[in-house]
Amino acid sequence: MPTRAADAIGRRSRPMVVVHSAPLVLPVCGPPVEDGALAVRGNRVLRVGPRREIEAAYPEPVPLRWPGMITPGLIDAHLRLDLTAPPSPPAHVHGVTAIASVAGDPETASAFGRSGLGGVTYLETRCRDETRWESGGRDALITAIREVDHPGTVGIAPHSPDPLVMEDLALLSRTFRLRLHIELGRHPVTLLDEVGVLGPGCHVAALGPLDEADRKILRDRGTTVAISSPFGAEGLLEGENPIALGTRAGGDPLAAARVLARDLPHDLDPRDLDRLLVEAVTLGGARALGMAEGPHRLGCLGPGSRADFAVFAVGADARTAYTALLREGPGHCVATFSGGRLRWRLDGSQGRGNTTGDAGTRRPA
Known about the structure:
Layout: H1 4-8, E1 17-25, E2 33-41, E3 44-50, H2 51-57, E4 64-65, E5 69-72, E6 74-80, E7 96-103, H3 106-113, E8 118-125, H4 130-147, E9 153-158, H5 163-176, E10 180-183, H6 189-194, E11 202-206, H7 212-221, E12 224-227, E13 243-245, H8 253-263, H9 270-288, E14 309-312, H10 321-328, E15 333-338, E16 341-345, E17 361-362
Parallel strand pairs: 1-4, 1-5, 6-7, 7-8, 8-9, 10-11, 11-12, 12-13
Antiparallel strand pairs: 1-2, 2-3, 4-17, 5-14, 14-15, 15-16
Helix pairs in contact: 8-9, 9-10
């Protein structure tokens, strides 16, 4: 008869549960939780709620107590890659765990994809006309997509001046289920709509102001707008269009959101605006990347979501959570986790293993 030991051969042991707690947990997809916690197993969040309930449900591991608040990882929805001049400081320092990065070639895309950041890397194509596209441009892009060597998702950043090429790129993206990312300004929004580029599988970066007709087209198509400058944010802070935040050159998207709240006119109550902008830099970014739903969803902390989160040394209660994070959070990230793994910590513990040993301050018994 086989023994129990023999039955266990080949079975993988389940990762242990790690409980992270803080004076405040801001799930974004649910109300803030004072004295809250999240239980993490491997790269997934199991449960979020009051600390005592979570610790009682998972009593074996020693809880890890953090200062301030735990939030979803921030998402930079528009970054143009230039590995010869990388963003400084690294994105994890700001609490960023996912990025929509635009790369000009597979080598740059591959190098960035191995950085530990999630999200989507978009390969840029600027084929000048349909003749060049048909004679080799299309095949070159397909080959480039296959040559990207990193575990993340690859998309297309179509920037051809030829509408026929743009139309074919829209078809190509649907055929291969690739997301699209476009900087507005090269083509009118009406033309992008006519060639079939816009839709929930695409997000755009607004580098300049959009009129109401353009904003309505984007709303109707379910296309998220990544705001990359105050100049491009006019008319987008009323809560009608889905928005995300992009830094374009790298940096702190939360700081960029704070600038918008301070400098741009709007008709929203200040607290509503603060919440809108925090959602833009978390859940809005996830929607832009097509990662707000499903088993690997980002931008929020809830059962089944990917364990991408950041810790900010910011004091707040449930009523002031969004305002405190937006106004005081930039520059005060103390740790960043991606897929449950510590990627950066203020004391210099960058990328050291998982969350079980050196991630936080252990709560005294």
